[in-house]
Amino acid sequence: MARKQFKTESKKLLDMMINSIYTHKEVFLRELISNASDACDKLHFRSLTDDRVKLNRDDYEIRIEADKEGRTITISDNGCGMTAEELEKNLGTIAKSGSYEFKQEHPDSDEIFRDEKAEDAEKTEAGADGAQEEAAADADEKGDAEAARTPQVDVIGQFGVGFYSAFMVSDCITVVSRAYDEQQGTVWQSRGVEGYTIDPCEKESNGTTITLHLKADTPDENYSEFLDEWKIRELVKKYSDYIHYPIRMMVTRSRKKEGTPDDKPEYEEYKEDETLNSMIPIWKKATSEVTDEEYAQFYESKFYDYEAPLKVIRQKSEGTSEFVALLFIPSRAPYNYYSREYEKGLQLYSSGVLIMDKCKDLLPDYFSFVRGLVDSSDLSLNLSREFLQHDRQLRVIARAVEKKIGAELKKMQADDREKYEKFFDAFGTQLKYGLYTDFGSHKEALQDLVMWKSSHEEKPVTLKEYVSRMKEDQKSIYYVPGESIDAMKRLPQVEAVLAKGFEVLYLTEDVDEFAIKMLREYDGKTFLNVTQDELDLATDEEKEAAKTENESSADLLKFMQESVGSELKSVRFTNTLTGHPACLASEGELSVNMEKTLNKMPGSEADAPKAELVLEINLKHPIADRLKALYGKDDDTLAKYTRILYAQARLISGLSVGNAAEIGDLVCQLML
Ligand code: ADP
Ligand code: MG
Known about the structure:
It is elongated and about 120 Å long. It folds into 3 domains: 239 residues, Heat Shock Protein 90, CATH 3.30.565.10; 131 residues, Ribosomal Protein S5, domain 2 (2-Layer Sandwich); 132 residues, Heat shock protein 90, C-terminal domain (Four Helix Bundle (Hemerythrin (Met), subunit A)).
């Protein structure tokens, strides 16, 4: 018997491997199945150029067997197998990947087989770049028969440690293998870091059989569960459903014993071969071959939703980076969507094998509501498959996916407004946060997706629609922040703008105004908060008149400001208001509404920033003359009136009145 030591560096690696690299022990099954699939791929690859290989594509299979009494689980394949030297080389040195070498020696192995398999009847030319991408969206729907093909040989293994993950669950591993050309088999056995033995043995046919002797259960770890049929089925479904060779297992079923009466049936157990995996991923099928119901079912079971998705997006890209994406926009926001608990991400597959359940890097935050998966054949995997080595490829994919989502949403907005409004109801707030975060750098991606209700029919409108309706003499996009549209409509400044026939956007969400501030402008038009910024409604003459009035009444206005105190920055006359005597405006960056929002945030009371408030008095209202008349004659009454007007303006703006009792008394005095 040949007893050998692992290479020293391998020992360390093996130790690390067993104890820390993988987060879930159950992935051992995925790794061994992937290796078996790789081995079938390799032999199949060879058969195409070597007549001596007699196997057809349909002859390959992967088998799983569990023996409860013996506590073993066996994974076997009829792939290329390994010679004694190969066993030694591949399993004796950790991080030496035979699959990687195979790929290096046959760089075109993926290419050659692309034409062979036609089950996937689609082709779209779309790299990471946008223009092609959009064309791809249409082509996707058609399902071009001349078609993209799944690479026949996509060798999954790339790094050479996957095999060792089996040590996480087993204390002894036996590998019996026979290379296709050899008559002699070889048995390799190891109990972990101490080393391994390697010996000749009998094996009937080519392929590899790996037997794991499971560790004893501990209070924390239930290794026995890997012996259960249902567990194995679940793991295969979860991680290896789309391996393109059948993964079979003899399963136990029960049936009614023949001849036993229907009212007193007896049952017997029998064994039956079951194929555990579905082999062709739904995302690799042509869109024309999959019904809406099938997509919905897949979505609901995979992503735990009980409602069909609002939209299914299928993306296939070839060129710069090859990948298929199957994306879903849910019909409603999950209950925890707008909380910290919610985790964004797409499932990531490498050639049909699940690598990561929630790959965050594939989705920008503002599209975090998208569920789904990406399957790529050219990801370089590192040690554990759970972390990707080169995130460059991932970034390329992420960018393409993001563009596709944006394009699809725009399409929905244009073609199916009702659906888009439903979408926006659920996830619009997230898009607005997207506008606001990262200093507005996602403006391009988002500015045409967001909507606000406007005075035009009080329905959500896009900025594009707003601008297209702007009047010739309208310079800005008018908006007003507030709590309810009813209240906003009655604001003095809003009335004034509406009276001129201009459209106003009603901003009802906290995030709205912050998002607009980040946008700065749209299509060259600036935004104007009608309750804050100086309204440009007046004619030149009116403006001139107001200016003169303000200058000549400077002392009066100063007196009025002082009679309220420092919370009021200034008082001015205006002639843009319609009926109301006075209203509140503000100066500077912070609007009244933003102040309200910031004050709502927990822990911000003391040092929360304040808006610089301005009290505007309507020159066209008789109260203006009354105030002027009082100044210098009855300053006491003037001060009282000012305080009442200021309180009134605050109330109209939806602000509270701090000295309500005092104001109440003042009003009462005037009544007597
Ligand atoms: P990787 O799959 O990333 O190459 P592994 O540790 O999973 O790394 O496997 C190491 C090597 O062992 C593989 O590259 C392959 O050459 C060989 N190997 C593993 N399992 C099998 C198998 N079932 N049949 C043939 N070769 C195998
Ligand atoms: Mg492997």
